[in-house]
Amino acid sequence: MNTFKNIGLVECSKSGKIFKMPSTGHFHGYHLRKVLIEGTLSEGLARTLYPDAELVKGINEIVADRDIDLVLISAPQGYDPGLVSEVMQSGKPVRII
Known about the structure:
Blueprint: E1 5-11, E2 26-27, E3 30-37, H1 43-49, E4 54-56, H2 60-63, E5 68-74, H3 82-89, E6 94-96
Parallel strand pairs: 1-3, 1-5, 3-4, 5-6
Antiparallel strand pairs: 2-3
């Protein structure tokens, strides 16, 4: 049985460059569990790109989830640096992509 680590994704893209995963939401041992849309990506497109992930309304829904093992922040240029700081203060590993 495969064990996947769970990812929370914060999609901040303003430029149209979107973090893409296989439609299954599984990638190299990771499972995309939750997505927060902070950029110009529409909710409809997010549901198409990340069909198995839960779309959430705030960063706290990701950082407070004990099952999230890693937080990815995609294209954060121009966004409040507090977003990255909040994830780091939660103690969860964060990667900016």
